[in-house]
Automatic annotation (TrEMBL):
Pfam entry (one): Peptidase_C13
GN (gene name): LOC101850219
Protein name as annotated: Legumain-like
CDD domains: legumain_C
Family, per entry: Belongs to the peptidase C13 family.
Native source organism of the sequence: Aplysia californica
InterPro entries according to UniProt: Legum_prodom, Legumain_prodom_sf, Peptidase_C13
Length: 409
């Protein structure tokens, strides 16, 4: 955005900032999104870092509530001080589960809370038009059936409401995945195209093609006021009167990093794993490529992989038992309906309460530490849509008491 001449004072950057200086990063202060790519970290001026990056702070920033931000973090913070003539561009990337976009430490932004703030901003004329790009698993569930089509907001997501989004770009040197398909596709396209000529829809088509040709396939979606997709990218990703096409490129093409021979572990694609499976995929791939490691390091990786697979298995088993317990009094649905259904969040209050209680009762399946466990949350949504909240809560209490892993930290 800064390279495209948007004034720094108009940009708010929130980041957990947990990669560039991580002890495992072999090049400290370095951040790339393709192997051997340019260092993207210099110039990343962060307005909110670490524990300040929460859903509550984000919503206050988005709504331009300076006093609200100060109450939350104890200092003045930059907000989106937009008005009725402004165009706003919002880019969000993290993990997700059905109906939830996650911030650091498993603090969840629920879809209804986001939509409520967007509606409020529209009523208060806080923008002229807004574009949101969201990268997370189940990102479509944050908007599907919820975002009005008449409040001048256009959204694209990396996945539909029922599927994961995918990583790419395995870095042999760092031994991690350094990019994701949706993000790398739109950012590279922005770097190389003429933003005065290319439209939002054309970029969406570029991204959709990238996500369909990657080994891990997701289905990017559009939501909201779709007529806005005829507008050019410069309206949102550049300051039009100062932007010059193709002068500064930050990224590299990811096509070569989303192809290649497919190989898997436990059904997980190790070329382009789903975001919520990247922890298992990384460990498995490190183990497969561990020829140059000592026997001790290989054993450590093997132990880590066994532990991750055990947690995954226990989380799946616990979910099945929880569903069975909650359906002790049948109300027109079966266990299979709940475990396989792909319903939208209709009872947000129950879903929020169930997530909160489960997290408190079963810290051993920490969904912040084990993102793959979030795949089971669709069952919580389905239960809450069909069963009384008290039945769901009682089932969580009953089943978590029986699982030793719930007490294991």
């Amino acid at each position: 955005m800064r390279n495209n001449s948007i004034p720094p004072e108009n940009i708010v950057h929130m980041s957990n900032d947990d990669v560039a200086h991580d002890p495992e990063n072999p090049i400290q202060g370095n951040l790339v999104n393709v192997p051997e790519g340019p260092n993207l970290y210099p110039g990343c001026e962060m307005d909110y870092r670490k524990e300040e990056v929460t859903p509550e702070v984000f919503l206050k920033v988005l709504a331009g509530d300076k006093e609200g931000v100060k109450e939350l973090i104890g200092r003045d913070g930059k907000v989106i001080a937009s008005g009725p003539d402004d165009h706003v561009f919002v880019y969000m990337i993290d993990h997700g589960s059905p109906g939830v976009f996650y911030f650091p430490d498993l603090t969840g932004l629920h879809n209804t809370d986001l939509i409520n703030v967007l509606n409020q901003m529209y009523r208060e004329k806080s923008y002229k038009e807004m574009v949101i790009y969201m990268q997370s698993c189940y990102s479509g569930s944050m908007f599907e059936g919820l975002l009005p089509n008449n409040i001048n907001i256009y959204v694209t997501t990396s996945a539909n409401a029922h599927e994961g989004a995918y990583m790419c770009c395995w870095d042999q040197f760092r031994k991690v995945y350094v990019g994701s398909v949706y993000d790398n596709a739109w950012m590279y396209n922005t770097d190389k195209t003429n933003l005065h000529k290319e439209t939002l829809y054309q970029q969406y088509e570029v991204v959709k093609k990238a996500c369909s040709t990657a080994r891990g396939v997701s289905h990017p979606q559009q939501y909201g006021y779709l007529s806005m997709n005829k507008e050019v990218l410069a309206q949102y990703q550049a300051k039009s009167e100062q932007y010059t096409p193709g002068v500064c490129r930050n990224t590299q093409d990811t096509d070569e990093h989303t192809q290649g021979s497919k190989f898997t572990y436990a059904g997980i694609d190790l070329n382009n794993p789903a975001l919520d499976m990247v922890q298992i995929a990384t460990t498995a791939r490190r183990l497969i490529e561990s020829r140059d490691l000592s026997g001790q390091k290989r054993k450590k990786l093997e132990a880590e992989l066994r532990h991750l697979m055990l947690v995954k298995k226990k989380a799946e088993s616990l979910t099945k038992d929880l569903v069975r317990a909650a359906l002790s009094s049948l109300r027109g649905v079966t266990e299979t309906d709940i475990l396989t259904g792909k319903e939208r969040v209709d009872n947000s209050e129950c879903y929020k309460a169930a997530l909160s209680l489960f997290s408190a009762r079963c810290p051993g399946i920490d969904m912040g530490r084990y993102p793959f466990a979030r795949r089971n949350l669709q069952a919580f949504i389905n239960l809450c849509n069909h069963q009384p909240q008290i039945d769901v809560m009682n089932a969580i209490m009953e089943v978590t008491e029986k699982y030793g892993i719930c007490r294991a930290l």
